[in-house]
Write a structure and sequence with these properties.
α1 crosses α2 (25-47) and α5 crosses α6. The longest helix is centred in the first third of the chain and has 23 residues, at 25-47. With 263 residues, the chain is α/β, with parallel strands linked by helices. A hairpin with an 8-residue loop joins β4 (132-133) and β5 (142-143). It is 39% helix and 19% strand. The radius of gyration is 25 Å and the shape is elongated. It has 2 domains: 2-47; 54-261, 3-Layer(aba) Sandwich (Leucine Aminopeptidase, subunit E, domain 1). The two termini are 30 Å apart. The strands form 2 sheets. Strands 1, 2, 3, 6, 7, 8, 9 and 10 form an 8-stranded mixed beta sheet that branches. It has a two-stranded antiparallel sheet with strand order 4-5.
Length: 263
């Protein structure tokens, strides 16, 4: 595109004026490269949006600031949402809880791999919440409805742990769906409304990876946004909500396209 954009006016000028443009091949290549880079950044940021790392989603129905961005969830201030299984298991053994999940990461890094301390904090938050007693070979026996949320704090780090996926008792494999994702986000937001006190709330890309929903990441973002919009229209949750996406997903998720879809 850049080569054509540079070559066409030169040829047109020479054809109309019957005169030659004196330009070296090296200078021509340099102009093409500069023009190409200009095209690349303009198209990437303002047209397709593939280079954008952060967008704002606005609504006339409520005044909460909603952003979608690539970054590190754990570097964000305020409350952080983390999806867990419906038993709120605490043992990180790659069977009940995977070390590669956000659930396992939080226990290992913020509770110093002390699963008992994390379990005590979660159980205290869930006191009085209805559950179903379930027989299992290992792990917790109390099964909670999807969307049940426990808040726990370790130092200045504040977390909302939400039951996102159902656990298959025979294998301890968890499985979420589009329906459970929306239900989990809405349940978590209802709990956040009571505890956030207008502090920022950050939500990861729930449902990808071990959530096993099996749909494209960009659609997961749309589902999370739909749940945020639906719940925010009921009443205000907090001042600002961010959906924080893994940086490695930047080649797969076009924030420009999401911004256009939600205008």
């Amino acid at each position: 595109m850049a080569a054509g954009a540079v070559w066409l006016p030169l040829e047109s000028y020479e054809g109309i004026t019957s005169s030659d443009v004196s330009i070296s091949f090296g200078l021509f290549v340099l102009i093409v490269v500069i023009t190409g880079l200009l095209f690349f950044f303009v198209e990437g940021y303002f047209i397709s949006g593939v280079l954008r790392k952060k967008i704002k989603i606005k609504s006339k129905s409520f005044n909460t600031k909603i952003t979608v961005e690539f970054g590190d969830l754990f570097s964000k201030k305020g409350w952080k949402a983390v999806g867990v299984n419906d038993f709120f298991d605490s043992v990180v053994d790659d069977d009940l809880v995977s070390a590669n999940s956000l659930h396992g990461h939080v226990i290992q890094n913020y509770w110093s791999d002390d699963s008992a301390a994390w379990q005590a904090a979660v159980d205290n938050s869930l006191h009085g919440v209805a559950f179903k007693k379930t027989k299992r070979a290992k792990g917790n026996r109390n099964r909670y409805p999807i969307g049940t949320t426990a808040n726990a704090q370790e130092g200045e780090n504040k977390f909302l742990f939400v039951a996102l996926a159902r656990t298959r008792k025979s294998t301890n494999v968890v499985q979420a769906s589009a329906e459970t994702l929306i239900g989990a986000i809405r349940g978590m937001l209802q709990h956040a409304r009571a505890v956030c006190s207008n502090e920022p709330l950050s939500i990861p890309l729930m449902g990808s990876g071990l959530g096993r929903i099996g749909i494209k990441d960009a659609i997961l973002v749309d589902l999370i946004l739909a749940a945020i919009f639906e719940e925010s229209q009921s009443s205000k949750i907090t001042d600002s909500i961010s959906i924080v996406l893994p940086k490695e997903k930047q080649s797969e998720i076009n924030l420009g396209a999401i911004s256009r879809d939600w205008k």
